[in-house]
């Protein structure tokens, strides 16, 4: 277990379980919590300044999402994803998202699409500020809100689950290499194409974007010395 920076205790009035789960997801995204490593709930709880109960509950939430797995009498192991796993997640997303974006290009109004522009800009801004959690949250919201314009809530739910399971390893290294900004700008490009109403061009743009994301996963590898992301949000 790597040494973690001191944590500030938080009020019992706050929803500890949700706050801890958010902090753990941030640590997974940054690479501070490493694939294959077993982490003890009491040890993490001591770092957070809370009891072990909300940490265990948060870990169980992550286990249901496929991000960690319980190890009897030891704690939780961060799930490892192989290249094949990532390829399969990307393939499924492409089968769903590419044709759906084509449908949205044909049916969405300019007003509906323009409403997504602040989110697309937020993705770029977060990438430029090296705000990895903000980047992924804005990216997630943009994609899910875009797909929601097709009117199929189950489809949105399915893609949301796939996105959780295919989290980016070592996102901080990609940020350091300057790869995130170009990927972020693709969201503005996609939006501009959608506004033309050209379904084929929109599908091509989405397919290229998903392929670029998969390339980033492959290029990112595992972070060597990630900055600490395992902290609770400030009150």
Shape: elongated
Mean pLDDT: 83
One letter per element, helices H and strands E, the order comes to HEHHEEHHHHHHHH
The portion of residues assigned to helices is: 55-70%
| Backbone structural class | mainly alpha
The residue ranges in which pLDDT falls below 50 over 5 or more consecutive positions are: 220-229
Distance between the termini: 27 Å
Total helical elements? 11
What is the radius of gyration computed over CA atoms, rounded to a whole number of angstroms? Answer: 19 Å
Describe the structure.
- The chain is built from eleven helices and three strands; from the N terminus they run αβααββαααααααα.
- The protein has a three-stranded antiparallel β-sheet.
- With 235 residues, the protein is mainly alpha-helical.
- Helix content is 66%, strand content 4%.
- About 4% of the residues have low confidence.
Summary tags:
235 residues, mainly alpha, 11 helices, elongated, 3-stranded antiparallel beta sheet
List the helices and strands and how they pair.
Elements: H1 16-30, E1 38-39, H2 41-48, H3 52-64, E2 68-71, E3 75-78, H4 83-107, H5 110-114, H6 117-128, H7 132-148, H8 153-165, H9 171-176, H10 179-196, H11 199-220
């Amino acid at each position: 277990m790597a040494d973690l920076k001191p944590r500030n205790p938080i009020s019992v009035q706050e929803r500890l379980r949700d706050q801890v789960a958010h902090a753990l997801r941030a640590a997974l995204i940054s690479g501070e919590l490493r694939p294959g490593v077993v982490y003890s709930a009491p040890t993490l709880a001591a770092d957070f300044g809370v009891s072990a109960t909300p940490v265990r509950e948060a870990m169980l939430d992550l286990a249901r999402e496929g991000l960690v797995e319980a190890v009897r009498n030891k704690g939780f192991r961060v799930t490892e994803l192989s290249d094949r796993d990532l390829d399969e997640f990307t393939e499924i997303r492409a089968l769903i998202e590419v044709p759906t974006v084509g449908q949205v290009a044909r049916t969405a109004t300019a007003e509906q699409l323009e409403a997504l522009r602040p989110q697309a800009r937020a993705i770029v801004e977060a990438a430029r500020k090296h705000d990895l959690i903000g980047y992924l949250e804005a990216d997630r919201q943009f994609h899910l809100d875009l797909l929601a314009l097709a009117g199929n809530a189950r489809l949105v739910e399915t893609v949301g689950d796939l996105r959780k399971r295919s989290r980016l390893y070592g996102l901080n290294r990609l940020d350091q290499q300057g790869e995130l900004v170009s990927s972020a700008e693709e969201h503005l490009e996609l939006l501009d194409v959608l506004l033309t109403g050209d379904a084929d061009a929109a599908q091509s743009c989405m397919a290229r974007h998903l392929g670029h994301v998969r390339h980033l996963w492959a290029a990112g590898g595992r972070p060597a010395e990630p900055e600490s992301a395992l902290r609770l949000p400030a009150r």
